[in-house]
Amino acid sequence: VQLVETGGGLVQPGGSLRLSCEVSGxxxxxWNVAWFRQVSGRKREGVACMSETGxxxxxxxxxxxxxxxxxxxxxxxxxxxMNKLEPEDTAVYYCAATIAPACGGPWALVxxxxxxxxxxxxxxxxx
Length: 127
Prior knowledge:
This protein is mainly β. Helix content is 0%, strand content 46%. The chain contains no helices and 11 strands.
């Protein structure tokens, strides 16, 4: 299983970015996928997840209404559309995947169930 994130960068407050995560080695229809973020020195935080069918999605309260997780099965890619970005959104963003039905349960945005991770992409929100 391999996950490769792209799309990070510097953006002004109120702006938008779309992160991409190209995956290989597994079938979307069998795996739950998620986005996490981490600020240096702090615990990794779950941002959004999507179930294997794509029918169930969950978001952290801090990003609800601003971020959207999606996937394109033809391109084997997961996306995180981030709108109305705030300085507090500055972090390294990681995509993750698990064969477990994590997104439908209480561990949806917890690191534990996710065994496969990308290398991360830096997002900086600053004027």
